[in-house]
Specification:
Elements lengths: L11 E6 L4 E8 L2 E13 L2 E10 L5 H23 L15 H9 L9 H7 L6
Antiparallel strand pairs: 1-2, 2-3, 3-4
């Protein structure tokens, strides 16, 4: 606040991504610890089910946990229009400050098929059962 830290507002966040389908956000807050889990399950081509869960220390008031979960969902919903219009660039321009994204992209690539047309080939041959 105007260059000063306000101790009762400090929040530490640690993020753990478990494959493309699950992320855990660990929050250490002045009111207690909370963990938000978000899962993404493919239902079909270009269709996913997203679920969010929140867990909190026993003494954390439910209103705080619900407010945090609501905030996470709102941020997710704001990103949907961006994801809907995204394109994959094989060699994107990455700034020096963004170098960790290179290793993340390499790690994440293991979850994609090698053949870009694989899903459309399977669909036309009746190979996908959604």
């Amino acid at each position: 606040f105007f260059g000063r830290k306000i101790n009762w507002t400090l929040v530490e966040v640690f993020i753990t991504q478990v494959g493309p389908g699950m992320v855990a956000l660990h929050f250490n807050t002045p009111v207690g610890r909370m963990i938000a889990i978000e899962t993404v399950t493919p239902l079909g081509p270009m269709m996913q089910r997203v679920r969010n869960f929140i867990f909190a220390d026993r003494w954390v008031l439910r209103i705080f946990a619900k407010a945090l979960l609501h905030s996470i969902v709102l941020q997710f919903e704001r990103d949907v229009p961006i994801w809907d219009s995204k394109t994959y660039l094989h060699a994107p321009l990455i700034l020096k400050e963004e170098t960790p994204i290179k290793s993340f992209r390499r790690w994440f690539a293991q979850f994609y098929s090698q053949d870009k047309n694989e899903s459309s080939n399977l669909e036309s041959s009746g190979g996908l059962e959604w």
